[in-house]
Amino acid sequence: MPTFTLPTVPGELQWKNDPLEWKVEADNRLIITAGPKTDWFMDPSGDHPQNDNAPSALFIPPDENFLLSAKVKVDFASTFDAGVLQARERGDLWAKLCFEYSPQGKPMVVSVVTRGLSDDCNSTPIDGNEVYLRLARNAETLAFHYSLDGRYWNFVRHFTLGKLSNLRAGLSSQSPTGQKCQATFSEIRYQPGALKDLRSGE
Question: The whole model's pTM is what?
Fold first, then answer.
């Protein structure tokens, strides 16, 4: 797959796993369609196959501290369909913030932190199929937030993946139980610098 660029993202984005379809629209929207049975998840029980096959557009952040945010719209059809922001050090060390379709048939903000095995946590139900997601790196810690309007940010999770030397960040779509999932990322923004208060999101 070719690399590509977005005006608001520093450097080239490269595909980790091929999407079913993808395109960049004139207004800087990135559309990623994941194919069937695609996911990034390492089941903590060890009873199920470990999946690392969701299509992901990743770049190398040039700053130690940064924010990556986007408005995420998902065409939900099947359980666990999601549009995702993620941070990836290697195959067994990564984290993702998902706008995901729950088994109860509700769109939700979900976070997953993986250090060998995945720690999965449902957060907040969302009305509708759009929400803003944000990933923040502050030195050796990371934080996840969501927003309904792109201005007021709600805290989801604060964690560490340890000392990172090969961090990539990016955007992804997944359809673990379905045949495909289209996620549209708009208002994509990369900003260097650290948050002053991780829990308030400022």
Answer: 0.96
